[in-house]
Amino acid sequence: MTARREIEAVTARIRERSRASREVYLARLNEAAAKGVHRATLSCGNLAHGFAACAPHDKQALAGDTVPNLGIITSYNDMLSAHQPYEDYPRIIKEAVREVGAVAQVAGGVPAMCDGVTQGQPGMQLSLFSRDVIALATAVGLSHNMFDAAVYLGICDKIVPGLTIAALTFGHLPAVFVPAGPMTSGLPNDEKSRIRQLYAEGKVGREALLDAEAKSYHGPGTCTFYGTANSNQMLMEIMGLHTPGSSFVNPNTPLREALTKEAAKRALAITALGNEFTPVGRMIDERSVVNGVIGLNATGGSTNHTMHLVAMAAAAGIKLTWADIAEISEHVPLLARIYPNGLADVNHFHAAGGLGFLIRELLDAGLLHEDVQTVWGPGLRPYAVEARLGADGTVVREPAPERSGDEKVLVPVAKAFQPTGGLRVLQGNLGQAIIKTSAVKPQHRVVEAPAIVFDAQEELQAAFKAGELDRDFIAVIRFQGPKANGMPELHKLTPVLGVLQDRGYKVALVTDGRMSGASGKVPAAIHVTPEAADGGALAKVRDGDFLRLDAEKGTLEVLIGAEELSGREPASADLSREHFGMGRELFAGFRQLVSRADQGASVF
Q1: Confidence of residue 218 (pLDDT cuts 50, 70, 90)
Q2: Cα dihedral: 278, 282, 284, 287 (round 10)
Q3: Domain at 423-599: CATH architecture
């Protein structure tokens, strides 16, 4: 089945735009793949170093050329809840592949940082750059040339995009991504948000706030709201990089372990040594990327992926633009309401039918490319399923339910929550920006008000505490872009602006920084590009200038004449204080190399 004409048209434009770069990419992939089993190219000394620490039977197996060796790239650490479950995965994977006569080795580890820990802290300025560090670290692990395929253990915000960039850079190897799953449900997200706002107003103390946060983030697994981490899992499944139905199964359950074993064996089945060779760089094409954008819009996913998907696609020679994302959003309905787009969490979404239901609905409506290749085989239809634990302890799959288990959370196309997707591109004399409309109520989607300009989020918080913000205004937070200070998330502003909106004021945020993938409620034009530190018009906005943010028409403007705007001297900021401490001095080169937000904010 082919996708609708509108989806096909966007895909065709991406394909044509990418033709030259994609041809170069595929030629390099084919050249690498043609060399065969890569251990055969290593000298005896090279190979001996490569298996020196292995058990005797694994050494014997790797001494030849016909036993597949699976590389494991892991983002395990035991501080972060989402990555702690990966501790046991290498053992599980090694045992699984031995059952089919193969070998697995941990090829390398990559850093995994948590935006939830670093929000509002200096370390947050390393967050976006960590994506490209992860890609670099993965490349080092795979550069030993010992592997026939790789499995990638990563789940959170920058980790999965970084791993994907690396996997596509090593596109001649098959790649299977293995999730760890979300933590079980804790304190409802709307209650957590309520306590945060009360704390911002000084109505409850730190003890009450910490108690609420600890009840929300209480065990192993990803946070349960639909932020960047869980948007990652949706993307990996809808793009065919997960095995079907595996994204949202909780950690430390028999089904989770069975899915991990199955993923390892599937990675071996698609190496060049078998009959289903599926190099990831050939598998992921323009249709797969478009499917990812469709899934992002249909679920109201994280705004961070307007940058990550551009960078991920570029690693495969595919040129995705914000204009493509905006056009797709016009044709894809919103089918899920997961916090911050609703009250439910990702476990409720999974219980209501989850990705299997959503994928089937989108396929039946012609809103996805069905004729893609996946790690499971040809076609996306096999992903319209639910994964269960069979009586023998292996994974069995059933068709996704015909009806949603909860239409407050997940609906069919015929009952869509809104006719367009959850993301919108804004354009005007301030440049381009992204807004997440799925979390903003219609009455708040158009704001025209005077600007109050800040050069740091702490300045806005101080003004709020001083009682200076009880009025209609649009907060401009500038010098927060990737060249300025690494483009931190400004999620700490959400409770403050939410309080003011609840008091009846018209408020909005305009920034060249980011907001959390979990942010919503208050209209926020984010990722403004060009950024203030790179000659953007945001540096020319002054206190009292009227701004208009119109998420319905897709515009973002300062309401002054073109001649006056062009004649203004841009403001400057002393950013030296932002470039030292917590390792920030090590990233000076990244700040100089990084591309614009609409180009993926990448150093490659």
Answers
A1: confident
A2: -120
A3: 3-Layer(bba) Sandwich (3.50)
